[in-house]
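@channel sequence for tomorrow's demo:
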Amino acid sequence: MSKCFQTFFALLFFFYGFEALSKSTSTTKLQTKRFAELPAKLEIYKKAVLATYDLKLLPNLKSLEQEAQAVDNKSVQAEALLLVALLKHRYGDYRESLTLNQAALDIAMELRDPGLLIKVYLSIVGLEVSLERFKQANEKMQKIDLLMAKLPAVSRLKAKINLWKSRIYFHQGSYLQALYVLDSAINKSNANKDVFVELLIEKAKVKLRLGEHIQAQNLLDQIAHYNIGNQYQYTQLIIKVLKAKVYLQAGLFVKAILTAQDALKSTFHTRFLEQQAELQHTLASSFAQIQDYQWAHLYLKRFAFTQKALDLQKRNNKLLQLEAKFDFEQQKQQLTLLEKENAIKQQQIMQQKQAIENTALTQQRIILIVVLLFTLLFFMYWRWQSKRTLNILEQQVAERTQELALRNKQLQTLSYTDSLTNSFNRHFLFTHIDEYLPQGNFSESTIMCLIDIDHFKQINDSYGHSAGDVVLKSFVKVLKSTIRQNDVVIRWGGEEFLLIMPNISRKAAAEILERIRLNIEEYDFTANNERISVTASFGFTPIPLVPDKSILDWEQTIELADFCLYLAKNGGRNAWVGATGLVDHEPFDAKSILRDTRALITQRKLKAISNCEDIIKSL
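structure tokens (generated this afternoon):
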């Protein structure tokens, strides 16, 4: 009988053990299957993010991160966090993006995977570059350089690292260093098609910034061979932006306008705000070149508005980082206070225990006095600490307000200044022109003078564009040293400048222009230890053209000055020509003056003067 019971219990034990083992095995197989499927899902979502940057992908990415965490696939979990951080970064949520990058960095440090660590650091570098924190970006790149030694000899990450190095150099203005890194990466690149296209795009940007639009066009043609129809929407937009800039530099202004307007249709979204600003600036420059100043002014205003929104977004995110740092310090102070409170409470408990043990009324009174004393001291300390914290906060707010005011002033100055010559730009003219025009009474004159460097293209071709840049800087230096203190020099475009001389007579203006012409002719222009001979031609017109009469507005006045500049250049260059006024008894409107300028000068109905009388006589 006992053997039967033993057999029964043995069978029962075997049955339940087999069932438990079966369940465990099936669970393990399911987890293994899910673990193996995660990398494939990650690649699908990665392509979707890079193709569209659509926020609708966030729930899917968070779900993928949770699945990876559930099956302990930390590598997929970290890369999912990086994709979410990239989306947050693209939509301007830099604070959340930084938090997600830090979470991914913690996982990568735990895994000690150099490839994953480099991906995380590159993501943080992109964030730092967007916030213009180049010092922190370079520190991360130094860490990446140390990790590169642990990578295989052939690694696609190396091309990505060089890409970000070149971007940092580009944003810091080190274009030749950026070009060197890009050439090295392209020549040795074993990256995939997308990264190689990014390298070519970055090189095209550098070439455009250096003014080498033909080489930039060749790079864009090379990109077109990589089946542009299959490229991501963001990449296609960047290529259109670059094409528009190439056309602008090449002087194909209509093509630049059409390309920029076509690209602008796909930028009306916050994730493409930077490209929208670039396209608006390109359109403003192109319309200005074809002398359609109404559209140029419109797009310039839109560019200023978009740029202001970008600057505000960056400034707000920097403030958020400061607020996060302040919140951390505040929590630290609260923890210190709590520790002190706990210490005081523990002391009170010990005193109460002693009072209970001794049960003496005197001791109880002493304990009560001690408690009251500590309470008073704590209250006084709390009041002092609160006042001290308030003073620190007020000081920080005042410093931040002062810093923001200084930044805004610097930004305004940058928007009005030509970066190469440090003279004013067209944006300054459109904003402040009314301040330099005669007000009310037309007895005062403002001279509008267009100045063009003679044979500047030959200088660029013979000595190089860097020498041309040196000539432009020295040219503006000579102008500023010769003109009056209240005169204004504006870079009108390329080697052409606009000189505004308010409250001056025609004769005095002619004398100043002659001094400028002689100073330029005699100035020692040198570049690369070579002397460059430079002369300039001038064309000027006063506003108003006739005293006490407003015939031409300031734009028409500049157009008349441009015709005078044409006469000076056509008459042999290194000369000035000025249309100084109409014969009083001859009534003319603006259109007839601008249309029949040559005939009016020939008929002596429009007064013209020049340092070279043969120019006037030859008309």
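heads up for whoever presents: Residues 105 and 120 are 6 Å apart (CA to CA).
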